[in-house]
Protein 1
Amino acid sequence: MDTGETSRVSAPGYFPGWHPFFRTSARFNVKPEDEIGPQLRAMGIAPEDVRTVILTHLHTDHAGGLHHFPSSEILVSGREHRGARGFAGKVKGYLPHRWPDWFAPTEIAFASRALGPFAESYSVTMAGDVIIVPTPGHTRGHVSVIVQMDNLSYFLAGDAAYSEAQLLEKRSDGVSPSARASVATIHRISQYAASTPCVFLPTHDPEAAERLLRRQITTPAAPSAVEILDAPGLNIPAI
């Protein structure tokens, strides 16, 4: 899931200099050996043997390593892919001109099959133990992946929240195109985690690796009826 960043971000001119975010706020230190390809090989996994890659969204720090997976099926939200393309995508902070020439992702075919508070879902595996759910907010087409194993749900949240603390506080990250959608998604995740033993694993939380190692369950308080009614945008469409 997701492909991390590329070491090419350190090259002069990789980011569009006209974009204020990349000009003033984006700083990365990624060495070639830090990329996902070499990291997988160090674990005995050849990138070419990876059949499916799921992208939570198309920001460069999640899609910069796409070039390692030319033989894989790439799953991404159709709304995310459409919104990230072209000059309009660049304005929103995507780097579509850096995607590999062969990049032609498969749009996730969400079905009206509820999973707890998520009205739609998509099962990646025949066993139904790897499931994609829409989690819009950080981007309009953001998705998360739930892996069900050993009576636990491992909630791979991408940037739906930056940390477990943000989830527990039920607050937006402050940079979402829609704070309403972000808070609505956080309420959905909180409802799911309150009803299902769940290890919450957002990408940028430095404590996520330890929670994964310990299989530490995140248990937010279930939102009250008042919270649900007051939550901005909780009834907005999922995708």
Note: The first strand starts at residue 52 and ends at 54.
Protein 2
Amino acid sequence: MNPDAEDPRSLTQPVAPVSLPVLLANVYAAPGEVFDSLRGQPARWPHWLVPVFLAGVVGVLSVWVMFSQPAIVQQIEDAQNQRYEQLVAEGKMTQEQVDQLQQRMGGLQMTIARVAGMVGALLGTFIWLFLLALVFFLTLRWIFHAPLAYMKTVEIVGLSLMIGVLGGLVTTLLMVITGSMFANLGPVLFLGEFDADNKLHLLVSSLNVFTLWWLGVVALGLARVSSVAFSKLALLLYGLWAMLRLLIIFSGLGSGGM
């Protein structure tokens, strides 16, 4: 079905509210109906709080599982050692300082990394929700001149995070199966050993099915509630995402395991 070929009346007439469990389930099966039900309704905090909390919990679970896998722990240690070698090569630390730091820290480094990862997964999900919603809110205002309220944008982005909840669970399972912290549902699965310093590998790892799915759902939600054409929003969001990924990768920010 072409999202831009909707009956114009469906974009202006409010739809009766739907219960939260149905909304969350239908984000996967019938996202158009989910966002149609939000049109003309005030933003409701459970619509974004429950998905973002679930996404944070899945993130914490993913970090815990990662650090329970010896192969992945070894990858993290290798990345840390590579970073130390880079600091020594740049003259920011001496090898003696690195040796002393590693001896003093011992296994505490992994514990700190595990705790930091879990806290970051939980809090970071909330932070990203509001930052992304702000970006989309300003995009709608400045480019499309659509007067969508900020908290309504938060509600749409929050519900779309249900894609991330499923994606986090699948990605965690793939990490366990492959023994790689870089695994995701995409062509990266067909690579041999992943090299975080290889720009081609980083490009391939960007093509995560769940990321692409999530972007499409966000574009659909914003389009249905704001009455902006889905094709325009999708083109813009996918374009911005692609440019950001290219910037991160080719500026070097995406190397070293990031």
Note: Residues 245 and 251 are 10 Å apart (CA to CA).
